[in-house]
Amino acid sequence: MGRLDNKVCIVTGASAGIGRATAVLFAQEGAKVLAAARREDRLKELCDECAGLPGTVAYCVADVRDPEAVKTMVQAAVEAFGRLDVAVNNAGVMDDNTAIADMSDEMLQEVFATNTFGLMYCLREECKQFLSQGDGGTIVNICSVGASHQTAGAAYCASKGAVLSVTRNTAYMYKEESIRCNAISPGGVVTDIPLVMPPSDEFGFGRTSELLNFSGELAMPEDLADAILFLASDQSRYVNGEEIKCDGGWTCF
Ligand SMILES: NC(=O)c1ccc[n+]([C@@H]2O[C@H](COP(=O)([O-])OP(=O)(O)OC[C@H]3O[C@@H](n4cnc5c(N)ncnc54)[C@H](O)[C@@H]3O)[C@@H](O)[C@H]2O)c1
Predict the structure, then answer these.
(1) Residues enclosing ligand 1, CB less than 6 A?
(2) Cβ(180)–Cβ(139) under 8 Å?
């Protein structure tokens, strides 16, 4: 028996890193996964890789910054698999570590467009679907220890602080509707995220890199996927509105 047998799950940002590892693990646990991201070739590869697993993986090309694309993504899950049970809102980008005085308008807009607005568009459509089904649903938002510790620039940390707030707001608002909404906050994870982030600002990176000395060994995406599985499955049925840090103790200092 898999821990997500026949559960219909959306995973955003599934073409790489934590999202990809989560989609694979969910398929191993028997889920019907709609993997969403922008790069179709990567999503096709993921579907092929998962072909022999107990679950099923289908894909949908979607940019979470576009509210219409997000609507289409939720519809695609329902069209492919008949309903929605679980959503992992994972798509995200880093900033350039700038402190507020040096932050550009473009950086603020780009980071919030994906990490905050994009995640909230997803949450809205997922909750609408859960409410229309009438039997609840489970959401895992991928936040960051940067929501409460200064591990990145002003834009990134603030964008993730908002993710924590909307996680708790959603959990409270729909508690009676059996919609659970929790967050996972990774510390340092070995993924592509540094490859796609802009070059770091010298002053800001100087400040944040002091904290890297405490981070210890980085996690692998699979370490995060295991924690996400717990919050996505019924094993966490009484956990709601919580943030679980998955950082190997980095932020315990
Ligand atoms: N890697 C870390 O150290 C770390 C630490 C804390 C939090 N996080 C968070 O974990 C999440 C996943 O990051 P990762 O480390 O796996 O990075 P990654 O770059 O390896 O993967 C991010 C995924 O999101 C997708 N994505 C980005 N913008 C998108 C958009 N507009 N629409 C659709 N998909 C989009 C990317 O294509 C990719 O599939 C992010 O929310 C990130 O902020 C990562």
Answers:
(1) 12-13, 15-19, 37-38, 63-65, 90-93, 114, 118, 142, 144, 186, 188-189, 191-193, 196
(2) yes
Domain boundaries, the chain: 8-244
Of 141, 182, 140, 144, give the one whose Cα is nearest residue 161.
144
Q: What is the pLDDT of residues 184-236, one digit of tens each?
A: 999 999 999 877 777 889 999 999 999 988 888 999 999 999 999 999 999 99
The structure's pTM equals: 0.98
> How does pLDDT run across 64-76, given as a tens digit for each residue?
999 999 999 999 9
Which residues of the chain, if any, have pLDDT below 50? none
**Ligand 1 atom nearest 142 alpha carbon:** 41
CB atoms within 10 A of CB 41: 8
Give the helix/strand (H/E) hosting 138: strand 137-142
Return the closest-CA partner of residue 164 out of 222, 120, 104, 109. Answer: 120
- Pairing mode, if any, of strands 137-142 and 86-89? parallel
What single letter denotes the amino acid at residue 98? T
Architecture of 8-244 per CATH?
3-Layer(aba) Sandwich (3.40)
From atom 38 of ligand 1, which residue's Cα is the shortest distance away?
13
Answer yes or no: are the C-beta atoms of 112 and 155 closer than 8 Å. Answer: yes
